[in-house]
Amino acid sequence: MEIGLTNSAAKPARRQRLRIDWSQQIPAYLFLLPALVSFTIFAWFPILNSVVMSFQSVNLVDASRSTWVGLRNYERMFADPTFAASWINSLEFTILSIIIGFFVPVVVAVLVNEMRYARGFFRVVYFLPSVIPPLIGLLVWRLIYSPNPGGLLNSLVAALGIAPQQWLQNPALVKPSILVIMTWGGFGGTMLIYLATLQDLPVELYEAAEIDGASIWQRGVHIVLPHLRSTMLVLLIVQVLGLVQIFIEPLVLTQGGPGQATMTPVFTLYRKGFLNGDYGLAAAWSVLLMIVLGVISFIYLRVARIAD
Amino acid sequence: MADGVSWNRAIISNLELRSTKARVVYALMVIALVLLSVVVIVPFAYAFTSGLKTGREIFSPNFNLLPAEANWGNYAQAWNYFQLPRLFLNTTVLVLGGLVSQISVSMLAAYSLSRLKPIGGRYIMLAFLITLMIPSIAYIIPLYVTAARLGLLGSYWGLWFSYGVNAFMIFILKNFFDGLPSELFDAARVDGASALQVFVFIALPLTRSMLIVLSILTFVNLWKDFLWPYLVLLQSPELQPISVFLFTVEQRSTTPVNIQMAGYFMAMLPPLLIAIVLQRYMQRGLSLGAVKG
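ok -> structure tokens follow
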């Protein structure tokens, strides 16, 4: 705070006296007060406290009865076989989702941008899955993915002559199945961002390329894609940020299974904390997760600034 | 966003569209988009029609999207079984309270940081923004512990209070206030208006259209929230919002699938209607995030 005081007082020194103008500062801080209080209670303190708790055996009701355990929570975290499984799953989810989901909104945005009619219609329809509570969407999808031969997807693939599948019970299928749901739920919003970017592409570029004899495909690859590239990079990082946080899908659909195929860091943390009451161990997971997410966010900021 | 803006051209020009080749490409694009629309809508349609089916029909191995006979009674049954009126009321109260909290806290903070020049304001803004780098799910455990120790579990107060935290909204509103000409405010200050009067009578009216967009966006986002209200209201089923309650019921008991689906479809309707009716605002709200993306 002292640094801030000298700093902001120094700049307007020419216009104002160095003395603090309390008649201005008091209302300024009164306006800030609600935000300062709520950020302290619900963000800053818990963030710092997770570091403290990760070195403790935590008593939920009474902080003074928590005991210090040194690095024990971290040792237990690294020794737990779920640890490696969760993070490897995160990595697999990330790679698979870049293959399955990343290009969907890009392609769809380019196509929608070509439409002479009904662009508003497509935008709204694709956006609908993003507005419903994800939990309810998942409850519906669970029935679609029912292993029963009469499940919607199984009865559909049966029409193609494919045997009924265990979409969520087969370790080979469960991750792609979940990513399909996530893509369904998210691509519409992402597509809107790409569409907005496409609006900025100067019309002259298309015209020049067309006059030069570039085919429709070539125009797409050499004009539209390069224009979208920086937005794609930014949104790629946003997507990774979301994938590290996968939680509600294993909670509703798989309980982390089959085996440990859908154990994720957040889901494990949730189980350690809320199901086992092991808040110290869960806090150690939190700290690691915050570091990982913080690093990805930092990369995001750098990339977004360059993309600007 | 270019909603009302007239369409210029994209990859395919209008002139080119007269050629057969371009027409074929265009037709394929239309078909792809229409098929995708169908795929996107299927889960909604499936929930709706499954809600009209008998339990046996749902698991009939023959593909049947439509029931032989529409059992509207399922919907009436689900309406009572899940106590939907109470759930909608709970969710609305929770979400509206959260909305008021989030917007007023953010407005006041943004206005102060932008116009009232608090000492150390830059550092405070930075401290707000840092919370954007760490999603709350990462510190949900200490958050829960804090709420438990403060006695905020089992009531809406803890949730309303916590929904005041949204650095992104402070950021957007601060940018908005930064962009307003300072003459507007200086004139009023010279006339002897207090900071609060300037805020209420000059700043607030200017934010109106912005406020509508942000409110709709916040409403939908808070309506979607699950984990935090789930943890806070775990022991208070009578207060739970819709997705929390549906999950709790689903965990504890076996409900006939057709009743479940009827209930889920009705639960999805309010946000769907909002998205359709207020689409323009929603999409503008999203582009707010994209601009600084």
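The mean pLDDT of chain B is 87.
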